[in-house]
Amino acid sequence: TEIPLREQNIVLIGFMGVGKTTIGSHLARKLYRDFVDIDQEIEQEYNMPTTEIFKTYGEQRFREIEKEHILKLCSNTRLKIISVGGGAFLQEEVKQACLASSIVFFLDLNWNSWKDRLKMLIDTRPNLQNKTLEEIEELFRSRQDIYAVNHSKIDTDQLDAEEVADYIIQTLN
Ligand code: S3P
Asked: Following DSSP, what letter does each residue of 122-157 receive, concatenated?
């Protein structure tokens, strides 16, 4: 990309509930950058939680809104920390826009650790609802390829959110 490395946005991707928002907030604070969480932006714009947006407009429409937000943000900003939803990279255009404007980190967690977080996540994540644990595991596994866009995968199993942020900062230097 033509944007100097130090000026690029940092985009965090990975499955629902891996800690993109928490880690992104730490990163923003430590790097004195602004933090943007795409899901939160959409929820504010529509003044409803994502579960309601899915119910009212459907996932398809949510994806269009998500794409608009990410494309606009990526083309207009530098130096931001951006957390995108776990399904954003299903859209090729979104993936390409992020890779062209930002350093992308894939926050990974193994299935066994992730599974323990399910209870905490289910009420706010429409794509986890009305599924068996087997179906959720299948979704979790099928998404891995979508996030593997470069070599910046971070295994977060043994690290807390702040340690992940510190690790990312180290790789930037
Ligand atoms: C989704 C992930 C969510 C949110 C929406 C759909 C998905 O974001 O965008 O509920 O399909 O993976 P988080 O990854 O921040 O939970």
From this structure: GGG-GGGTT--HHHHHHHHHHHHHHH-SSS-EEE-T
Q: What is the whole-number distance in angstroms between the Cα of residue 173 and the centre of ligand 1?
A: 30
Could you tell me the pTM of the whole model?
A: 0.96
Nearest residue (by CA) to ligand 1, atom 4, is 85
Supply the CATH number for residue 104's domain.
3.40.50.300
Residues 151-166: tens digit of each pLDDT: 899 999 999 999 999 9
Q: Whose CA is nearest to atom 6 of ligand 1?
A: 87
Total domains, the chain: 1
Indicate the Cα dihedral angle 126, 62, 49, 83, nearest 10°: 90
**Largest pairwise CA distance in the chain:** 45
Report the separation in Å between the CA atom of 85 and the middle of ligand 1, taken as the mean of its atom positions.
4
pLDDT per residue over 94-127, tens digit each? 999 999 999 999 999 999 999 999 999 999 999 9
Q: What's the sign of the alpha-carbon dihedral 39, 143, 99, 13?
A: positive
Domain limits at 27?
A: 5-172
- Ligand 1 contacts CB of residue 91 (under 6 A): no
